[in-house]
């Protein structure tokens, strides 16, 4: 099925306005008469007056009924591959020679809604958001593998949704069977990535530029704290930058084991650093009681606001967290506070770092960062801009 012979769906006035602006999602309630179609079916979109608005793929089960790929044209295998190749080509300008872990395709932000492809050295991991690409991916995968072979990728695997059975969360799609763990290079820094069991598609590639910043901040900062440290990317960066003692805190003990292997892969002895398996708030309370102080703090919690409804509670939690961080930040120390919730805007987030939240008035906001260029978004798609990284000194 292609857009030319595809079904035309009429959009409500507000859904039409949103698609006209370039927003890539049509929710079910944005359709005048939602049809019953197989997921993956190509559809055309039109306003109530019949003005053609776009082409997309149908998703029978998600609240997002149509993901919009463009204004017009056929939507077939060739068109999808062209878009994917364009996303790959765009990376050339953004990723340096000493980095082999980066996002090759960022779904909506690369005009291939729902398709995320992350490269981890010689493995490419595919994640599908929604069901609309399910009928396409098996056919696309060998072609994607052929294109990526030129970059040294030997395996293309699919990251399965959490609710599917089985422990190992990757399934080979094309090429070699991928190993469970790989060592990647990020700006020359080695990182072990758990492809089979790790979070996201294995690592938080969106923090790459921020890890490089933390590495630069590590110099002349003796004691560093990395809260919600996961596989220790920020910890290794701080230590490589010169921080003499890095404390990593996470509830997941397995993540610390990965972090320690990454320390060793960079010639750093993990025995010189601390890995604490604890709740972040409990750790901070105990640290404040002991009078511990840190010269560099990175805080990168999981999303506190998964949706709009939980936003007020999330803002309260961020304020509480940041207040607790301020208590253990040494005078002259540097605080890097991150949020990965798209429902919390940059200004909302800065409100949780004001003097009242921190209980001190000596800090300035020296920088505010977001996602790196291999995680592009669309101006009309605020949902894609989730990452905030505030630096206070
Ligand atoms: N900064 C990391 C990513 C952090 S993801 C990086 O750049 O790679 C969030 C982490 O928070 C996860 O590893 C999760 O195990 C941990 N976590 C969740 N709840 C926690 C809590 N209450 N206390 C400490 N860690 C927690």
UniProtKB/TrEMBL annotation:
CDD domains: AdoMet_MTases, PUA_RlmI, RlmI_M_like. Its main location: cytoplasm. It is found in: Cytoplasm. One of its GO terms (biological process) is methylation. Its EC number is 2.1.1.-. Residues 7-89 form the PUA domain. Pfam families: Methyltrans_SAM (PF10672), PUA_3 (PF17785). Keywords: Cytoplasm, Methyltransferase, RNA-binding, rRNA processing, S-adenosyl-L-methionine, Transferase. GO terms for molecular function: methyltransferase activity. Belongs to the methyltransferase superfamily. RlmI family. This is Class I SAM-dependent rRNA methyltransferase. It comes from Polyangium sorediatum.
